Amino acid sequence: MISEGGRNIMSFDTKSFNATENEAAAEKMLEKFDKESTFRKLAGKWNIFISLLCVAFSVFQTYTAAFGVFPAQIQRSIHLAFALSLGFLLYPVTSKKSRSKMDPIDVILALISAAACLYITVYYHDIMMQGGMATIQDVVLGSVLVLLVLEATRRVVGAPMTVVAVLFLIYAKVGPYIPGFMGHRGFSVERIISHMYISTEGIFGLPLGVSATFVFMFVLFGAFLQKSGLGKFFIDLSLILAGHRVGGPAKVSVFGSCLFGTISGSSVANTVTTGVFTIPLMKKIGYPAAFAGGVEAAASTGGQIMPPIMGAAAFIMAQFLGIAYVKIAVAATLPAILYYTGVWVMVHMEGKRLGLKGIPREDLPDLKQTLAEGAHLFLPIVIIVYLLLKGYTPMTSALISIISTVAVAMLRKNTRFTRKTLFDALETGARSMIGVAIACGCAGIIIGVVTLSGMGLKIANGIIYLAHGMLLPTLLLTMCASMILGMGLPTTAKYIILATMAAPAIQQFGVPDIAAHLFILYFGIMADITPPVALAAFAASGIAGSHPMKTGVNAVKIALAGFIVPYAFVYNPELLFIGDPPKLLVCRFVITAILGTFSLACAASGYWKRDLKLVERVMLFASSFCLIDPKGFTDAAGLGLLIAVYLSQKFFSNDRARIDIEKEGA
């Protein structure tokens, strides 16, 4: 299916995965769809200063990971001081402002924000002795910091989260004037500011605490992995394992994005980084542009829910729930497998339907050479998983894994760290954390209002009231709320907001905490591919040259399992390996759930051995719902329906010849 010219292009693209033109295309697309990528590109002394500031940020975090963190407010205030300073220095007030020059006003804002944060560090003991009573100086500096956090959030993260935080602050003040169950007694400005500034319930609350410890070290670990060349190894390995199969480039996209998601904390960044390589290949062999973009968006979005290293939100979830991160990773394993099973089957069936062959083996990287050049880079991931399973803290595990990354990379000349790559990794890690830290600071404002006013319980009760006290309507409403609130927000920010506002409604029905929080995380992430605001899908459409909405619709269709599986594990927490279910029962759950996902993917694609008739699609949809629900009766019914469709496909397969003739004619 690939012409001689196609083979030449394949060889060029494979070898130039990290070439300048691919990086330039990725950077351009990120700037368009990822708010955090619209930073200044400075030269000269300013560039050197900001690079040194980033490295100092990473060194501070590494030092505290190695020798112990400071008291909570000191650790968090220094962390936020770095993030806000870098935020104002790197991100102009509007996109129309020059990104090649430094604005003196932003320098002043950076200095003020650093001073407001470091005031907590310098006067920590005095603040502790005050017993929560704020002085005039505290209120003034706290007011300034709240405004600066809101402005930095608008610049770096985006307006949606800023608007939400402002509305929450207004709510804290005007509570007495709000009728009904959402009303409260109201709080003075001084009370609100002191709660946000000198306590650990506001800006310097739990989200920023996780950012200043676990999250930073894992993001830094990802930066070191990227600089070691692991990203290229993932792509080459994906080409070798899946490139030659039916619809090869689409499966490379699925496999590669799943792997790359372990070192990327953003759906958009994952989409763009791998998409500039995989989407043109998918289009080259015959996938429609909108479908190619949808495959990449769906596969990249799933990277944030794929163990062993999930997105940063998983670490915040661990702190919210007070459990080990490993338990969350174990619980998320089967749902993630089901998600990617659905995506894989969808692209496979579409490839069969279109008659698309894979990439010729001679155009693929050599397995022995690829393993020889990059297999050792995978060792740090094995190390971090081992350390987490052995009970080491996430921060210690990440620190040891960073050291192991540098050590392992030294084994081969082509991956060896130099002073420059080491410096670049430290700088990249800090830059990647600016948006996360600022978003966590802003989320602290939201959570601060919730703890001050009891708003979380009020919203949960409101959702349950609208659902008439029934679980399914509550889940549907929570799903809608999760996807709406998740639009345009980075994963960390959307999870924090949803954990505060949406998860409590589900938990009131006795649903296990992990199931409730994974439910909102899944649907918050699904917002990245669901129109009308589907940033990952829109980024993929920019690379594919397809219509954004059509790309989003295709992404939803491909990721359909991601919309069904959360309901399954809420009703059947055994799918999350909660408790200690019998091993045979777990095996049955895994097998039937995978078969159910297969049925769902076939039904959504409209193809199995041939085009599915309407009655067959209906039967497969019914089979999928039965098989994903792990009960004896439903499993038997679902398996019976699946077998019936299989027999129908096998003995009444009369459309393949027609499809081949039509393709030859086209």
Top keywords for this entry?
single chain; 666 residues; 73% helix; disordered C terminus
Shape type: globular
What's the number of helices?
32
The major sheet is characterized as: none
**Global Rg:** 25 Å
Task: State the low-pLDDT regions, or none.
Answer: 1-21, 656-666
How helical, in percent, are the residues?
over 70%
Mean of the pLDDT scores? 85
Alpha-carbon distance between the two ends: 14 Å
Structural class of the secondary elements? mainly alpha
The proportion of strand residues reads under 5%
What is the number of E strands?
0
Give an overview in words.
By secondary structure, the chain is mainly α. Helices cover 73% and strands 0% of the residues. Helix 2 (20-33) packs across helix 26 (535-544), helix 13 runs antiparallel to helix 14 and helix 14 (289-302) packs across helix 26. The longest helix is centred in the middle third of the chain and has 35 residues, at 419-453. The model is unreliable at 1-21 and 656-666 (pLDDT under 50).
